[in-house]
Amino acid sequence: MGILALWTICGQAQQTDPRIPKGRELVTYQLPKHAMYRPDWIDFNKNGKKDVYEDPKATIEDRVEDLLNQMTVEEKTNQMVTLYGYGRVLQDDLPTSEWKNKLWKDGIGAIDEHLNGFQQWGLPPSDNPFVWPASRHAWALNEVQRFFIEETRLGIPVDFTNEGIRGVESFKATNFPTQLGMGHTWNRELIRKVGEITGREARLLGYTNVYAPILDVGRDQRWGRYEEVYGESPYLVAELGVEMAKGLQHNYQVAATAKHFVAYSNNKGGREGMARVDPQMSPREVEMIHVYPFKRVIQEAGLLGVMSSYNDYDGFPIQGSHYWLTERLRGEMGFKGYVVSDSDAVEYLHGKHGTAKDMKESVRQSVEAGLNVRCTFRSPDSYVLPLRELIQEGGLEMATIDDRVRDILRVKFLIGLFDKPYQQDLKQADIEVNSDDNQAVALQVARESLVLLKNDDTLLPLSADKIKTISVTGPNADDASYALTHYGPLAVEVTSVLEGLKQRLGADTEIRYTKGCEIVDANWPESEILPFPLTADEQAEINRAVEQAKHSDVAVVVLGGNSRTAGENKSRSSLELPGRQQQLLEAIYATGTPVVLVLIHGRPNSINWAAKHVPAILEAWYPGSQGGKAIAEVLFGDYNPGGKLTVTVPKTVGQIPMNFPAKPASQVDGGVGMGPEGKMSRVNGPLYTFGHGLSYTKFEYAELTISPKVISPKQNVQVTVRVRNVGDRDGDEVVQLYTRDVVSSVTTYEKNLRGFERVHLKKGETKELSFTLTPRDLQLYNIDHKWVVEPGDFKVMIGSGSEDIRLEDTFEVVPYEGRAISNRPSQASEGQNQINPVLDNNISTVWEGQRGDYLTFTMEDNAKPKEIFIHWKSVAEPTTFEVQVSSGGGQFLTVYKGEAHPTNDLARFPLKGDLASDVRIMLTAGRAAIAEVDIPSLKR
């Protein structure tokens, strides 16, 4: 069924379904005249008095405890399960009289994907009349909510959960690029906006909990769900994940539930098997790569939901692990929300992992581990009934059940379900969901996600004035299916590349289109390992594309993949272009017509031939509903591409694992030279490196400064750099900061991304960018399994990509041991006695130091020194120094920089008058002797 036909059916249903209200009720949701609805509170338990849990002015914890104390075992256990929505498990779109005889007569924790339009993979969206328009959808969810509030004993509202990794999953909503595309924007502010829009549209539609962001870190490019990661850097995933979660949870409009916790994205050999048994990682890699984003997003964004994954790690299924779901997640990370299971994660404990004998034991293990809500495509009875048996038999203590239910209720109170359980502004849903303003943001995300991989002889941008005939071919040239699959909006209008070019060029340019080939051939994926000859039909279609290209000024070839080649449980055994796409590309290239390759797909492809022969390559990933327009703008220079790779593109699947960050020398071989006389035994290096991306203009970097150059393990470091657009076009540059712990107690990564900024520069414009490196950015996971900052040198590298470093410098971390410390172990034991020579009013006694040595002075309470006096006795030229101040906690900021010269007496140096608990003199270069120091308000 096509989208237009489905829309027609929905329109007809609006006229014929007698349950649909008329008139004003689709503008504002009208509550019935029921005694429970009071002017400023709701009598959920219908007892005629305001209980604590019904009082909006009471604290959330008091409300939770009051409600919990009133709940029966049946009501508590029902809160611990999800009921999948219409067409999945629930067979009713609106409440019926039979609901009073169903399990959920005592309430339910969540209803997932109710009326969101998704039926199952491969089927068109649901034609149910309540999936659209937005106002009618919100009205229907209100009606469902009304059953749980009015018809259950305690009136506990249900949490309406839904997917939302590229816009909220609905018949229509704002359709963004996939997370992989969003990652390539490197734009925190834009990702925050995506989160705000997704959460806002979800709430307007009636949903209160969105399953996003995905915090998995890409490690194996074969993996089917690579399209869903932001990239391979845990730092980038954390930075963008924080912004997405904050945007989603803006003003608690919805809860954000991140997935998949934990160690999910590096299954063996790219194979999934639905259980992803035993991801192949060391404990240190798990901590530094996979745990890192979850910890930061939980602590910095106040994440309210986590989805537990169904893989095991080191033999222990995450779903049944008290260590992961309680000790680490709640104890260490401070998670205060609720944990929901991923699909059949509970069932896999006995069905696949074999760590439980049956469903009942799997339930017990999951609840003991820390699971709050079971969520899968099964009847809620299959979980709740064995759960109740366990409680009755003493297999689970009521205190454990209460702890799990507390977390669920806390989230429901936080997102306002007990204060504003209904989405009453129905008209606003029609105005705002998938609005023009929101689509404009989606277009900007699509623009910024595009990465120019190659542009020989500046073939791009194309000139509309010079091109009269353009050939467009490839299986993704006129296809929009990549934007209309699960986990996002299902039936929006999508601009394909072909349509985008038509809109951009109009009638003045002739566009010749033929598909050229399908995404895959009839024998795929076997054809990846066993060649099959082209069929007559396949050859004929390629021939049509060739003839068309021969008579065109330029050929745009749009290749890649779609839901047939990537997605959940669709890992690959190859990274080559699937099907007949490579043959099509080579045939078009052979015509001699200039070729532009556009890639639309969900994972990096090993396009070695194209990288060597095709002059211009644009990487688009899955660019969302506005992707075709954005691509046309880039091809013809209306928009200057500025995206950078957040993934590594291997030359061959045989190189995997090949990703960022990597250990020193782990991505290359030692041999050089090909052929019989050479020493190479394998292809070396990636095809395209992390951070790579070109522009239609050029940028120069200058004036890298690091301050202070010597710090304690608790100090921040300020890094500044000036970037200038030296080309003839305005454009965006993604400035990237990498660090390297030069010498460390355990092997660390060669480059750690620790800062980035996407900056727009007009031609000729210069901007100074500033980055702050915190102690967290310098930590390593040491041999004792502790996060520490180790003393030593750290290299800072600034550039346009991980292998396009423009500037670098170093700073040093030295131990912090009191008022006067040195980086030389022979002097460390002297402690504070070292400071006496500069405070004894005797110029014949001196303190001597060299680069890295410093003196720290304790100040009186509330001291705000505006000057410091130093008697430099002798100086080995050139010697530089800094004066730093701390307001507590051991972190120092530089307030004065200067060059030291011998003085006859105390020389004055101005300070800023900042509040200071300590003042430090730091030698940053050279050697010097100091006779005396004086600081107003110095504590003696």
From TrEMBL:
Matching PANTHER family: BETA-XYLOSIDASE (PTHR30620:SF123), PERIPLASMIC BETA-GLUCOSIDASE-RELATED (PTHR30620)
InterPro entries, A to Z: Cellulose_Degrad_GH3, Fn3-like, Galactose-bd-like_sf, GH, Glyco_hydro_3_C, Glyco_hydro_3_C_sf, Glyco_hydro_3_N, Glyco_hydro_3_N_sf
Pfam families: Fn3-like, Glyco_hydro_3, Glyco_hydro_3_C
Record-level Gene Ontology MF annotations: hydrolase activity
Keywords: Hydrolase
Entry superkingdom: Bacteria
Residue ranges of every copy of the Fibronectin type III-like domain listed in the record: 733-802
Protein's UniProt name: Glycoside hydrolase family 3 C-terminal domain-containing protein
SMART domains for the chain: Fn3_like (SM01217)
